[in-house]
Design a protein that fits this description.
The chain has about 475 residues and is of the alpha/beta class. It has 2 domains: about 35-240 and about 450-460, Aldehyde Dehydrogenase, Chain A, domain 1, CATH 3.40.605.10; about 245-430, Aldehyde Dehydrogenase, Chain A, domain 2, CATH 3.40.309.10. It has helices spanning about 5-25, 40-50, 55-70, 75-90, 95-105, 145-155, 170-185, 205-210, 225-230, 255-265, 285-295, 305-315, 330-335, 360, 375-385, 400-410; strands at about 35, 115-120, 125-130, 135-140, 160-165, 195-200, 215-220, 235-240, 245-250, 280-285, 300, 350, 370-375, 395-400, 415-420, 440, 445, 455-460. The strands form 4 sheets. The protein has a 7-stranded parallel β-sheet with strand order 11-12-13-10-9-14-15, sandwiched between helices. Helix 3 (about 55-70) packs antiparallel against helix 6 (about 145-155). The radius of gyration is 25 Å and the shape is globular. Bound molecules: nicotinamide-adenine-dinucleotide.
């Protein structure tokens, strides 16, 4: 009898592997991608990624679809949205539903990975997007689940496995979502542990993740400290950092619409999105009418200077940053702490300030919106550039003057520039284009998608397949 020893060895190896997997699935400690130690999490992701290399592009497309479906399943969507609000104490349930739905539906999948081809007398060359391997992804507390959703879709579409470092204050919901996604992926036949994390996310664990040589790429979505850390890591890194988006309104704008858009954008998820309107630069001749209209759409104007001072002391900490206990809180909640009771129709707290005021200069991430009055649109543009602090993140402008729109867009150099719409139009809500909750200003990938998480590789076939 002719026995192929190599083939038998391969078969035995496969059986042992699958028995091992079965056993670990039955082990009650088996927890769908959640590990006690960061080293084990990275190891598991590396093993998963190796297996993932053998999956086809249609497999990848199927797994991306699984992630979308897991998130969009009504009970999961409601569960993660509710749990985020409860655990972080930030944002609004109804808006979390919208943000999670958006991330699940509009984060691009494998279609983003387009191949370039060059053919000629010397043959055919293709340039393809290929995985980095294991990616370490750090998520913020402001969009914890949204970031996991869009990063998982993009990173898996590009053929990677992911080790997440969720924010410790969003630990439970992040772990719950990672388990749900892993369960769905495994049921669809994907390799186990394509998405992993640790039971106790912490700065120490994030550091261990970043230092692990098996993690080939880092993606930080968060404030300046973590972006700086990943950019100093010596690894390929994407930094999606802080913003302080200004909105300019000039005398040519549709003021009623501008007022409505600004209130809607600023109050979306209680101002948590890094793209949300944080301060207004309004031309003097229309400033009063803008304020009048904003009040119609749900702004509560504070004029009393003593109250503005009290509000400043209430929400700004001794280091000059926002107090965490007020980040993502609603306008009625914040006002109630000043003894002012208003209903849920109030979305935004509005006041006139100087450009030097901390409400203008600081990224508060709460629905407090200062308005700075300026003599003309050129001054508004200059100040908008100044208060954006070179973050190159997001800016808005309401104007019908094409020259001035072009001037601001060119000079401010933000990753997102929304003309005549609310900020969220920039991430695909009522504006064209895909979504992401990892907007990479500092490192230039822009609105990240699968191709941001892939390496370009060139394959050259010499002397063939040019069929012209
Ligand atoms: P954060 O910087 O406090 O935390 C972000 C993540 O980094 C968390 O997981 C945290 O645990 C981790 N982290 C922070 N410092 C670290 C350190 N020294 N070592 C290891 N890990 C560290 O930010 P946040 O409060 O969760 O989120 C809000 C900030 O993120 C805002 O500045 C906002 O503009 C920004 N943000 C940017 C984007 C974007 O796409 N550009 C998206 C969302 C949030």
């Amino acid at each position: 009898m002719n026995i192929d020893v190599k083939m038998i060895e391969e078969l035995v190896k496969k059986v042992i592997e699958s028995v091992g997997e079965e056993a670990s699935m039955q082990n009650e400690d088996y927890n769908y991608g959640i590990f006690d130690h960061m080293g084990d999490a990275v190891e598991a992701a590396a093993t998963a990624q190796k297996k993932y290399l053998n999956c086809s592009m249609s497999n990848r497309a199927e797994y991306v679809e699984v992630i979308r479906n897991v998130v969009l399943k009504k009970e999961n969507l409601e569960f993660i949205s509710q749990m985020t609000v409860e655990e972080t104490g930030m944002g609004m349930y109804e808006h979390k539903l919208i943000k999670n739905t958006l991330a699940a539906k509009k984060s691009p999948g494998i279609e983003d990975l387009t191949t370039e081809a060059m053919s000629g007398d010397d043959g055919l060359t293709i340039v393809e997007y290929s995985p980095f391997g294991v990616i370490g992804a750090i998520a913020p507390t402001t969009n914890p689940t949204e970031t996991i959703i869009c990063n998982s879709i993009g990173m898996l579409a590009a053929g990677n496995a992911v080790v997440f470092s969720p924010h410790p204050r969003a630990k439970n919901v992040s772990l719950a979502l990672i388990k749900l996604i892993n369960k769905g992926l495994e049921e669809a036949g994907a390799p186990k542990n394509l998405i992993v994390t640790v039971r106790e996310p912490s700065i120490e664990n994030t550091t261990l993740m970043m230092e692990n040589p098996k993690v080939r790429m880092l993606v930080a979505t968060g404030g300046p400290a973590i972006v700086k850390t990943v950019l100093s890591s010596g690894k390929k890194a994407i930094g999606a950092g802080a913003g302080n988006p200004p909105v300019v309104v000039d005398e040519t704008a549709d003021i009623e619409k501008a007022a409505d858009d600004i209130v809607k954008g600023c109050s979306f998820d209680n101002n948590l999105p890094c793209i949300a309107e944080k301060e207004i630069l309004a031309v003097d001749s229309i400033a009063d009418y803008l304020i009048f209209n904003m009040k119609k759409f749900g702004a509560y104007e504070v004029k009393d200077q003593t109250l503005i001072k009290q509000l400043e002391e209430l929400v700004i900490n001794e280091k000059g940053g926002p107090k965490t206990s007020f980040v993502g809180k609603s306008a009625p909640y914040i006002l109630s702490k000043l003894g002012i009771e208003v209903g849920s129709e109030i979305k935004v707290i509005l006041m006139e300030t100087s450009v030097a005021h901390p409400f203008v200069q600081t990224e508060l991430m709460m629905p407090i919106l200062p308005l700075v009055r300026v003599k003309d649109v050129d001054e508004a543009i200059d100040l908008a550039i100044e208060v954006e602090h070179g973050n190159r993140h997001t800016a808005m402008m309401h104007s019908k003057n094409v020259d001035k729109l072009t001037k601001m867009a060119k000079l401010i150099q933000t990753t997102i520039f929304v003309k005549n719409g609310p900020s969220y139009a920039g991430i695909g809500v009522g504006g064209e284009g895909h979504t992401t909750f990892t907007i990479a200003g500092p490192t230039g990938e822009g609105l990240t998608s699968a191709k941001s998480f892939a390496r370009k590789r060139k394959c050259v076939l010499v002397g063939g397949l040019d069929v012209r």
